[in-house]
Amino acid sequence: MALSTTGTTKVTAIAGDGIGPEVMEATKAVLAAAGARIEWEDMMAGAEAFKKGIQSGTPRETIDSIERTGLALKGPLETPVGYGERSANVSLRKHFELYANIRPVRELPGIRTPFSGRGIDMVVVRENVEDLYAGIEYMQTPGVAECLKLISDPGSERILRFAFALAQAEGRSKLACSTKANIMKLTEGMMKRVFERISGDYPSIAPSHLIVDNCAHQMVIAPEQFDVVVMTNMNGDILSDLAAGLVGGLGVAPSSNIGDKAAMFEAVHGSAPQIAGKNLANPTALLLSAVMLLRHIGDFAAAEKVEQSIYVTLTEGKNLTGDIAAKGTGVGTDKYVAQLIENLGRKSDKPSRDYAPISVPAWSPEQGVVAAKTKEVVGVDLFIDSALGPQAVGDKLQAAVQGSAFSLLTVANRGVQVWPPVGGHTFCVDHYRARLMLAAPIGATEGQAQIADLLGRIPEGMSWMHLEKLMRFDGKDAFSKLAGE
Ligand code: NAD
Questions:
Q1: Contact 178, 235 (CB under 8 A)
Q2: How far is the CA of 378 from the centre of ligand 1 (A)?
C-alpha cells in the first residue's frame, strides 16, 4: 500500500455503475468525518469502459492506479448487454491475483431476520481464482458442454493459510473447511488433504472438515456454530451469499478480495439500476467494506468508530434507508449519511471484535511447482464424439486398437461404464470416454508416436474430442477410477 507524503494512505476509488456513485460518495463522506486519513484516486471501470471498447471493462489508468496504491474501494460494475462477455470484477480479481475473498457475516443490531438473536458471527473465506471460475469451457459435441475444474495444491495451501491467519488475527478459535471431497476426490479432495496437512501448524485454532451440502444445512439450522469457514471458489460463492442472507442480505453485506500485491474492497450487491440516481440506495454494505479496508491498513480506531456509528444508527432505527427502515419511515441516502456522521464517536451495546493485522507471507513463483520423483504414463482416456451407441463404440474401438501400444479397458458415458456392458440403465449421449491402457508404464515425456498411432486408428463414425494422459506420480495412480474398476 502507498503512503503519501502527508501521512495519508492512497486508495483507488472506483465508484462503478448504477447506485455505485451514490454509495461511494456516502462512504467517502462518513470516512472523512471519522478522521480516516485516506487520499482517494478516483478511477473508472465498468459499463462506461466497456462502451469505449475496453474488453476487460477496466481502463489501463485504473489498473495502473491500483498497481501504485495496492488498494481499491470499488462500487458495483455492470457488463452492458452487447459489450463483451467478460466481467470487469472477475478481470480485476484475476489481474491482481486476489486469491482470498473474505465475507464477514455478523448479526447487525436493528436488522430483524428470522435468525436475529442467535449470535451469528462468522467469516466465510472463499478461494477466489481457481476452480470452475478459470472459465475454461468447451462444447464437446453440439449437445455436450464441458468446464474444467482446476484446483491446485499451492492455491489451496495459500487460501487455507490465509484463513488460519485471519482466524488468529480476529481472535477466533475454530476453522471449518468445507468441501465436496467425498465425490470429487482429487479436486475438492485436494483442499481437504492440504487442510489436514497444514492444520497442525496452527495449534490455537480447532480444525474441522464438513461436506459442503451438510455445511449449507448446518448454516441454516445452527449458523451460530461457525467461526471461520473456508471453501473452494464455487462452493464459497454460493454459501457466502446464503450466509449473507442469514443476517440481512446483500444490502448490508461487505467483502474484500486480498492478494499479495493488492486488496480490493467492495459491497456484495450489484448496481441496483431500478433505484439508481434516486437517493434511495443503502450505503451500509460499501461502508462496512470500507471498515474492512481501514482494518487492512491498520487504522483500527477509525474502523471501530465507523462500525460503532453504524451499529448505533441501526439500533436506534432513526433515519434509515427504505430497504431497512420500519415500514413508511425510510429516508434518502443523504439523511442516513447525516445520521451516521452525527453518531460518530458513540458506542453501541454491540462491541466491535478485536482485530490484529493479518500476517501472511507472500508466495514466490517457485512455490507454484509441486515436484514428484517419478512421473509415468500408464494409459490414456480418449474422449470421443459418436452417435453409434455404446456397444458399437466399444466393439469398433477394441478392434481398431488391436496391434497398437494400447488395449481398450472400458468405455463410459458421463462417468458410467457402458462397455463392456454392466447391465445398468444408462441414458447415453454422444460423448464417450474410452480408457485405454499401456502394457507397461512409460515416462511422462515418452509415447508421442504411440499416441499418434492410436489417434490414427480411430474408426469411422467417431472423432476424438480430447485426450487425457493417465498419470502415476511417485508410483501412485493420479486419476479417478470408474465405479467397480
Ligand atoms: P442487485 O444487487 O443490483 O439488486 C438486487 C436487489 O437488491 C434489487 O432489488 C436492488 O434494488 C436491491 N439492492 C441492492 N443493493 C442495494 C442497496 N445498496 N440499497 C438498496 N437496495 C439495494 O442485483 P442484480 O439486479 O442482480 O444486478 C444488477 C447489476 O449489478 C447487474 O448488471 C449485475 O451484473 C451487477 N452486479 C455487480 C456486482 C459487482 O460489481 N460486485 C455484483 C452483483 C451484481
A1: yes
A2: 50
